[in-house]
Write a structure and sequence with these properties.
Elements lengths: L5 H7 L3 E5 L14 E4 L4 E5 L4 H17 L6 E3 L13 H14 L2 H12 L4 E2 L2 H7 L4 H7 L3 H10 L11 H5 L3 H10 L3 E2 L1
Helix pairs in contact: 1-2, 2-3, 7-9
Length: 192
């Protein structure tokens, strides 16, 4: 569904991509390595131990390294989904994460799809929009949405809206709910 394909992009820049059973042999802790890039042989390995959304984000992250960080040596990364950027990260890691976010959820396409789905440039929670989200359960929805992140997470995964049946944004862009929620906030598409 997505317009952005990190596998295709890697092939275009002559990097081979291999999905492998796991990369645990490269870490002292199990399931800590999700991706490896080796620029010397133009190869990326992605662990199949993680959900597809994590695999896609990790591959886009490695693509960012390939395009942005010339001279980089073999490098391994923990599981990434666009939301788990805990701890201190090097500038190169921050750049690769930003690249992956922008590659998988480009501002222009995401903004267009958001407007098409929610019929507005900026979503505001009110009685009308709550009814459009869930006409049969307005009270329950109002009680569940207490913060901006609650709202952006809900909007990320909701299917039908106001009688229109679009796929959710996470399905359209093949990313995690958290990654999409953060991106909606970054693009200032939701007012809470």
């Amino acid at each position: 569904m997505s317009h952005t394909d990190p596998f295709l992009a890697c092939n275009l820049i002559k990097y081979s991509v291999h999905i492998v059973d796991n990369l645990d042999h490269l870490s002292t802790k199990p399931k800590q390595i999700a991706g490896i890039i080796d620029p010397s042989i133009r190869e990326i390995q992605i662990s199949n131990d993680f959900p597809k959304t994590v695999q896609r984000f990790t591959l886009a992250h490695e693509l960012g390294h390939a395009l942005l960080h010339e001279g980089m040596s073999r490098h391994r990364d923990m599981p990434l989904d666009g939301a788990n950027f805990k701890g201190k990260r090097s500038p190169a890691e921050v750049e690769a994460n930003k690249f992956a976010t922008n590659f998988l959820m480009p501002e222009d396409i995401l903004t267009l799809r958001f407007k098409q789905k929610f019929l507005t440039e900026k979503f505001v929670i009110n009685d009308d929009t709550v009814f459009a989200l869930d006409p049969s359960n307005k009270q329950n929805l109002r009680q569940r949405i207490k913060t901006l992140r609650d709202l952006t997470s809900y909007l990320s995964k909701v299917g039908p809206y106001s009688g229109n049946h679009y796929h959710s944004l996470v399905i359209q862009f093949e990313v995690s709910e958290k990654a999409m929620a953060i991106r909606l906030e970054e693009l200032d598409l939701v007012i809470f």
